[in-house]
Write a structure and sequence with these properties.
Length: 80
Amino acid sequence: MAEGTIKIKLIGSPICCPEKHKVIVRSLGLKKMNRIVVRPDNAAFRGMVLKIPHLLAIVTEPRPSGSEKNHGTATVRKRK
């Protein structure tokens, strides 16, 4: 994630919401559920997200800890 940006995800449907909420969702560029958009991290976009927290979420990527170095390999569980 680049410095100065936030990732916003649509987690709730704006179908039965007031028109103001639908306008906010569309102005962020979200059209479908579970889509993520990257927007500048400023007060305007943070305010939009705070207006409808039941519909939107800010996505954060998990950071690997210092002791666990994956180097791109996946852990595979074996069936018993």
